[in-house]
Specification:
By secondary structure, the protein is of the alpha+beta class. It is built from ten helices and 15 strands. The strands form three sheets. Strands 1, 2, 3, 4, 5, 6, 7, 8 and 9 form a nine-stranded antiparallel sheet that branches. About 30% of the residues are buried. Bound molecules: succinic acid (SIN) and cobalt (II) ion.
Length: about 375
Amino acid sequence: MEIDQPVSLLGGLSARQFMRRHWQKKPLLVRQAVPGMVPPIGRQELFSLVEKEEVESRLVRQGADVWSLKSGPLPRKALPPLKQPGWTLLVQGVDLHHAATHDLLQQFRFVPDARLDDLMISYASDTGGVGPHFDSYDVFLLQAQGRRRWSIGRQRDLELQDGVPLKILARFEPEESFVLEPGDMLYLPPRYAHDGVAVGGDCMTCSIGLRAPSAMALGADLLARIAEACAETLDEIPDAAVRRFRDPAQPAVSAPAAMPAALQRFARQAVRAAFGNDEAIDRALGESLTEPKPRVWFDQAPAPGGLSEVTLDRRSRMLYDARHIYINGESFRASGRDARLMRRLADERTLAGRDLEGASEDALALLSDWCEAGWLHGE
Ligand code: SIN
Ligand code: CO
């Protein structure tokens, strides 16, 4: 992606300028970010998606000051009539299930993949919305069809309404408001309060959602992964090679229940050695961030005969760092030419025949395994 080129998606800013001036800092309203916007998915197709078990969806309805929330799967008859005002259907991760929506999300890859979460689509009848709220993540709100009024504000008072099934601000104080037409886009940094209300029916909005792990949740996940990796390696090490606690200087004790200080020191060292290893942490991070989303299943395929071109499945997550390649929760050490090839696959999500020509036997075997697993599609 050309990051220094001014783009209409960002209102004539280059990706570099956008990241410097707005990212995580301040909102940006872009009129005609996508000129001639055509919704990536039709209404009927969206309604059929939410009937499926593997698609995460919610139906939000607003009556006179009462909010109701219903989680998917949602059969067609669970959706209110189109003409009935005040309802919204939210469909998470549409990019995982629908090729054109996945393609639209690719335009936002000036943000690292590790930070991009998914593309959610909301479909609302007239006046539909999910109420004033804030999110913990940045979001790009791209109007795909119909019109929506967004009211936004910096909001200091983050108290939420009691007794509602949604997170709705108790006292929203909007500072600005704008009506978005198809192709218009609004970027909001994390915790910026917003309220989107459909103006007229048949309103479709794409939310390009980001993810930012919390230190506690990420830390806990990485510790669990490192612990599991340590336990696995321990199984492979012959017993004699495992450093074991020894205490030839232990004197006789008259207080037998007291913990020996030497054993505490040994335990602290063991934990620091296991968890203080940067490479183990990098590996756990790569595996964690490429873990497929819940409810993602890949379709296994027969091993391809030979490979002339490969493309990552749209559900595959692939990242890399200086020493490793990560894909769908697994890590591989790679260096030299093979590492360059795999990095190219991760960045471009595809490899052409000429890229594959110089690939080693090992790299080709790995690509072929990934094709079998359904992570990659080969020709
Ligand atoms: C919506 O599209 O209606 C909600 C998206 C959001 O507020 O983040
Ligand atoms: Co929001």
